[in-house]
Amino acid sequence: MGLLSLPIILSAVLAAAVEPPKGHPWLAPGPNDYRGPCPMLNTLSNHNFLPHDGRNITKNKVVSAMSSALNFNESLAALMFEMAIVANPEPNATFFTLDQLNVHNVLEHDGSLSRTDAFFGSNHIFNETIFNETKVYWTGEILDANMLANSKIARQLNSKAFNPTYRFTSSVESFSLGEVSAPIVAFGDLQAVTVNRTLVEYFFENERFPTELGWSTRKEVVNIEDILRLSQAISDASNLITTDKEVVSTQRRDLHGGLY
Ligand code: HEM
Ligand SMILES: *[C@@H]1O[C@H](CO)[C@@H](O)[C@H](O)[C@H]1NC(C)=O
Ligand SMILES: *[C@@H]1O[C@H](CO)[C@@H](O)[C@H](O)[C@H]1NC(C)=O
Ligand SMILES: *[C@@H]1O[C@H](CO)[C@@H](O)[C@H](O)[C@H]1NC(C)=O
Ligand SMILES: *[C@@H]1O[C@H](CO)[C@@H](O)[C@H](O)[C@H]1NC(C)=O
Ligand SMILES: *[C@@H]1O[C@H](CO)[C@@H](O)[C@H](O)[C@H]1NC(C)=O
Ligand SMILES: *[C@@H]1O[C@H](CO)[C@@H](O)[C@H](O)[C@H]1NC(C)=O
């Protein structure tokens, strides 16, 4: 290698380092690309961690995407794939496509944080009206289990009150608790059970990793125990009963405080 090539290599390394995330720039989905109701799988496809066309999502691809983008334990990612493969109606399917996740009441369910119920419109496209409703309950700069739980309950109550086809089984509840805690898993503090609201809103609204806001893949591996513990924290925070001593404090939101 000649000395002259050194600056070229160095600048290539620096350019790669600022690409968000490294080697995986974001590219908006095109008209023929499939996307689904999961903001994270959509994000992984937008960054080419999963196929950009949203098709042929195999176990190996899920394991490698979730491991490299989110530092998920490979056995956790494999388990998630096993739970998702019912989405493909073919017997013994080895892959699913993002649009197969859109089928109502298979994995997709009512009361989502950022999508409307199938009864009212598209159950899989990001819906600003619905996400606005969710954000009412995100009353601090740092989201905690109470705020996330409150938004979950509010969405369910709205659906139960106004959607005559509202359905939310106990199996949906398990999935939903995982989904509602997922922003902490991806972008937050697993021990404190908190996450920066700005990062979460950016992620939902853009289906893009919030790299430009300073986020990067966590250093610790995410294990099944973490997922179960965080889901339990959301479940506990969903209780509307307090003891006579307990005070559930929620930070007042300063930016959109006009809602109150
Ligand atoms: C094989 C892996 C996965 C599959 C098949 C999957 C599938 C789904 C599906 C079908 C939904 C829609 C549920 C609904 O109707 O609201 C959903 C929602 C969601 N998923 Fe995933 N998901 C996967 C992994 C992940 C991961 C790793 C994360 C982040 C750490 C994540 C974050 C979310 C969030 C935040 C929602 C809730 C969206 C909302 O309520 O509007 N998912 N996922
Ligand atoms: C799906 O992906 C696998 C693994 O990369 C590949 O072997 C297979 O040919 C692909 N199938 C289609 C239909 O693209
Ligand atoms: C990944 O998960 C498996 C099964 O739960 C566990 O045995 C292993 O120690 C985990 N690996 C890491 C790095 O946490
Ligand atoms: C699916 O797998 C099962 C068990 O391995 C096998 O008995 C069955 O024939 C397979 N079905 C198809 C359609 O390949
Ligand atoms: C967004 O949700 C609202 C409220 O349910 C609904 O009226 C509207 O049609 C939805 N938009 C789409 C594109 O589905
Ligand atoms: C969502 O809330 C923002 C901020 O309050 C507002 O500008 C926007 O019009 C709302 N969108 C919908 C669809 O209600
Ligand atoms: C949340 O993240 C944003 C974007 O990186 C940052 O500007 C803000 O200071 C963070 N908020 C808190 C409370 O740490």
Describe this structure in words.
- It is built from nine helices and four strands; from the N terminus they run H-H-E-H-H-E-H-E-H-H-E-H-H.
- The chain has helices spanning 5-18, 39-46, 59-70, 74-84, 128-135, 145-162, 170-187, 197-206, 224-237, and strands at residues 57-58, 95-96, 142-144, 194-196.
- The strands form two sheets. The protein has a two-stranded antiparallel ribbon. Strands 3-4 form a two-stranded antiparallel ribbon.
- Helix 7 packs across helix 9.
- The chain binds protoporphyrin IX containing FE and 2-acetamido-2-deoxy-beta-D-glucopyranose (NAG) (6 copies).
- The site of one 2-acetamido-2-deoxy-beta-D-glucopyranose has 3 residues, from helix 5.
- Residues 141-142, 196, 198-199, 213-214 line the site of one 2-acetamido-2-deoxy-beta-D-glucopyranose (NAG).
Tally of alpha and pi helices = 9
Reading off the top of the CATH hierarchy, the class is best stated as Mainly Alpha
Fraction of helical residues: 40-55%
What's the main sheet like? 2 strands, antiparallel
**N-C termini distance:** 65 Å
Proper CATH architecture: Orthogonal Bundle
Sequence of strands across the biggest β-sheet: 1-2
Assembly classification: single chain
Alpha-beta content class? mainly alpha
- CATH homologous superfamily title: Chloroperoxidase-like
Name every ligand kind in the structure: protoporphyrin IX containing FE, 2-acetamido-2-deoxy-beta-D-glucopyranose
* Overall structural domain count: 1
Q: What's the helix-strand series? A: HHEHHEHEHHEHH
CATH fold assignment: Chloroperoxidase
